[in-house]
Amino acid sequence: MEHELWITAIVNDYLAGVGSAILNLAGQHAENPARPWTNYMVMQILVAILVMVVFALMRSRLSMDRPGKMQHVFEAVYGFLHDQTEEAAGHHSLKYLPFFGTLFFFILFGNLIGIVPGFESPTMFPPVTLGCAVAAFLFYNIVGVQANGLFGYLKQFTGGQGFPMMILMIPIEIVSNLARPLSLTIRLYANMLAGEKVTLVFLGLTYLVVPAVFMGLHVFVSLLQAYVFAVLTMTYVGGATAHDAH
What pLDDT was estimated at residue 95? Predict the structure, then answer.
């Protein structure tokens, strides 16, 4: 049984009934009905709230004349994501930038919160990374159908080949698409779990310079994995909506 974080203990103490009800609605049953909330469930909700609070604070401080440091940082991140969307998905995919940005910031905050003492990164748990991957999978398929129509989108699974090659290409394309959420899930989960374990090992050995180095590495990996996840999603959306560009 996993160690219960202090914040998870508080939620279980006061909201156990709510947690059990939510799990029942989802067709799941908690192993311990008195403690239905797990660390990753509480942490991902906390991350979502944190993202909303940060952007609400930033919105209240937006200024054309005297932008603050926070505004400069987020404008730089927005410009970066804007350029990456154009490069990876094409100019026609800029209308999907809000979704890419939401994924990027949720994963980034989820990765980084594990550095804070007493918290864990929810992204080092497969259910959380699978949820992000399924969201990306559903999104690019839905916008692909919207952009090209159902038959136009399904035609992409033929690889643009004639009848003889279609028989070979369709199964390959289907397997390739179904493998994408699995790949996204494992990549993010494995990297964040490995980074967390390495940091904890060195924290247990020494509390001076070495842990700081690995915590810096953890920050770098957190940024990199959020970027990779977002760019791969952009690429999938760009491929799904490619015909819409013409």
Answer: 94
